[in-house]
Structure formats: structure tokens, C-alpha cells
Amino acid sequence: MTRHVLVVGAGIGGMTAGSLLAKAGWSVTLLEASSELGGCASKFKRHKYLFPVGATLGMGLEPGGIHDRVFRFLDRPMPIKPLERVMEMVHPKATFVFHKDRKQHVDAIIAHFPQHKNEIEAFYQEIYKTAAIVRTLMDPLPSLPPENASEWAFLATSMRPKHIKLLPFFNQTLGQRLKKHGLSDLHEFRHMIDGLLIDSMQTGSEDVAYLLAAVALDIYHEGAYYVPGGLYRFSELMGDSLLENGGVLKKRRTLKKLEQQGDSWIATDHRGNTYEATDVILNVPIQQLTKILAPELVSKLKVSLRDGIAGETWATLTLYLAVDSTQLAEPLPAFRQISTGDGLAEGGHFFMSSSLLGDELRAPEGFQTVTISTHSRREEWDDQEKYEKTRELLTERMLQAIQQLIPGFREAVVHMESGAPKAWERFAGRPNGLVGGFPQTLDAALFNAISHHSGLPNLYVCGDHIFPGGGTIGAAASGIHAARSVSGKRLI
């Protein structure tokens, strides 16, 4: 029987899986509900301005990085220079700068806390040493938790004697390591760390799994990039490759039903079209599985996946602005975190990314487009009155914080709109507007993560809820694992 792969969802995970399999010679059809590729890393246009929907900071493009390996396998490398000055982190009492160079970065932080020089140096030495060991596993990229003999064997052959050094940290949080180094009560330092982690790990230092936190704090030093136009280019490159290698890509096709029929799967879209496949990879929010699978199939899903469907992640409010930079004292930097000291959500902490002047893929000369996002709790949006009030409140909080930092900012705004949870549900297919994947706590990370194996034969899942977690790197890695399971080959 000739095998045919159906990929549902053109987010980074689905595009990675589909393009790798097509390049490897597989018959692939990819369905996407939107008119754009990329999911939470796609784009939209308003007038003469282009806005990245969500993800903006390019990671994993360094030599040997996850995206770099995918693009090289597809013969579509992206030669982009890394940012030496990655981002500003603006806090109430200090502004930190994240430098690519590790020593420069640590020295700059110590300058804010000279009395804690020895403790901070020791903490970062441990972080960088730990991350370097963990990163050696990113070359073989074993999948966790292993679900069959082959995956257990691959994990075993990926291990080296140096990995024994990770065992004492396996069930520790970053909060425990901060306490060990005498830094748990250095609140400004810890708040700066929390600001970095909430954007990448979806939780703060107290609860985040240490091994993943070490990689998250170190990975910017490996390479962070400004991608002209935006990260939607990742999916466009993979889409071009998929088509070039004989794959079929259909946009504006919403999956409504997925059924088993013998050894095959039959998918039905919202137009009534059907697609038969031997293997299916779902790059959709896992909360959608109960809508597209019959109850008897849902009951056969892996327990961790069913538990994940019932769980919740963060909602978000995102602002999209176009700014006349000639009205500002200086152009906006590409990436900036702003913390007001009022917590990690609800506008107390937000990430602000701006197009660079001269990036005319995003804005005409003299203008910059800006994407601003904050974490928010779902319960803040659970009725219409509260919904509109929360939208107005969080918008005003963020704009006020920016205005205090950048005088004249509000007067320079020439276009503004917001993406609240209903917009994320409508345009990105995120039920209840939940984005970003699960917080990477000890009970949801590594061997406790959700596998790409669904529990149903030849049905796989990928995306930000699946190991190794959120972000474009995590989504791509889950797509790689799904493609490997379908093909039976390592691929990259």
C-alpha cells in the first residue's frame, strides 16, 4: 500500500514536518485553515504596513541550530547575522541589556549588583556549563518521553558520560538553584530573570524546570536574529520547498472531522472535501482534538494528551502599531522587554518588537511597525463586559509604560489595533485564545511532557503543547520528531 501523509496546520511544527517529509520523497498534503502560513508566527497587512502576528525574535538559525538544520536539509539556508545586542530589559529601577557575548552580558549585570559579584558569576558559570551539556543532546534530538523501543534505544545511544552531570539537577527548579547561589532574595536580579523566562518558558524562576531554564537563559548567546519581514519567512521557505518537492498545499481548508477507516485516516474539511492518508500529523491546538475526533477515539488518546486538553495556558493581548519614527528622538530598537514591577502578566510585563528602519517589507521609509504582547489570565476575558474592560485596561497600561520610557510615542502612532483572545481564536485557531504552550514546570517538562505520539495508530501531534514546548524552536523540534516517526529515519 502506498503511504500518503496528511499534515493539518501550517504552523512552524506542521510546516517543518511536511517540508522534511516531502524533501525525503514522501507524498504529502498539507491543509491550512488560514490564508497565511506560519500560525502564531505568520503575518497580516494593513494598508502599507505588515505586522508579525506573534513570534518576532529569530532563534535557532545559528550553525547547528534547529531551524538552520531544517533549512540546510531543504537546501534553503538563511544567512543572517546575529544581533550582538539582543534586547533591552527595562525594569523600574534599572535597564539591563542582553548581550550576545556571555562575558560582556554577565559583566553588565554585575555592574548593577557589584556587591553580589561572586554569587552572580558562580550562578552564570553553572547556567552556561549546564546549558552546554544539554545542548549536546540537540544534535541527535531524542524525543521525550520515549514511547517505544526504538526511541528508548535512540535516547540511550544519544547519552554520553558527561550527561551524568545533569542528574543532580533533573528534578530541580531554577528557584532552587538561585537559593543555592544566595540570589533568591536579590529581587531586582530575579525579576529580570523572570522576565526572560515568562516569554520563553511561560513561567517564572520559582517553578520552571532548571535544565530547560538553563538552556532558555543561554540560548540567546548562541544566536538571536532580526529577520527582515518577520518570522513568517520561515514558513514561506518551507512552503516553497514542500511544493518544489511535489507536496500539495491547500489554504483556507479547516479540518472538521478525522475518522479511522481500516488502516487509513479520512479527513473532511469545512467544504466537504475528503482526504485519505495512511499517516496524519496534526499541528493544531490540542484542545481541538475533541472537536475533530469521535469520542471513542478521544478515549484512546494517551493520558498525558487528554490531561493536556483539559489544562490551560496563557491568553494574551497583542497590540499592533505603526509609528512615524521621524517624530521620535531616535528609532525604536528591534526588541525590548518592559516590566513595570506589577507582575508578569496583565500588562505588568510585555515584549515589544519593532521593525528596523529600512525594512521596507514591513513599513515604508521613516516608519516602523511594532508588535507588543502581554500574558493574561483566561478568567480576565470570560464575559463580554469584562472582555472589553480588560482590553482597554491592558492597552492603556502598556501604552502608558511606553510613553514614560519614550516621550512622544503615543503622538507618533499612526495606526493601532489589538489582538485579544477572540481574535487569536478566530484567526489562529487557538481555542479561548490560549497561546504559547504549557508552563515548563517539573510536572510538564522532559519525561512529563506530552509526546508527539497520540496513542492512535499513525496519528501524530506537534506544536507548542508538545515536547519540547513553545517557541519556534520547540514547535520545529516537535515537527521533526513527527516526521521521524512517519519516515522511520532521522532525516536531520
TrEMBL record:
Pfam families in alphabetical order: Amino_oxidase
Every Amine oxidase domain range: 12-486
Listed GO biological process terms: carotenoid metabolic process
Example of a GO MF term: oxidoreductase activity
InterPro entries cross-referenced by the UniProt entry: Amino_oxidase, CrtISO-like, FAD/NAD-bd_sf
PANTHER family hit by this protein: PROLYCOPENE ISOMERASE, CHLOROPLASTIC (PTHR46313:SF3), PTHR46313
Name the UniProt record assigns to this protein: Oxidoreductase
Organism: Planococcus versutus
